[in-house]
Predict the 3D structure of the following.
Amino acid sequence: MARINVEIPEPLQPLADGDTTLTATGETVRAALTECGQRHRMLVQRVLTRGGVLRPHVNLFLNDSDVRAVGGLDATLQDGDTLTVVPSVSGG
């Protein structure tokens, strides 16, 4: 089981008790997010839909790659990987 870091953007940090980085373990991105959700349910609800799908307005990077391009939530994790949550920003 891989041990990884999950980087949290400033707008979502209050949902992670103010933490900028969380640690998680799991074989896949989905498993690591599920573990994070056990500690920070509201945070993960901003990343995943109720059906467990990555929200369309949220980008999630596994190291330097968009997870959508490397297997989605089923992408395999390695020790030391970093997941970075990047909410979309829009303006007018």
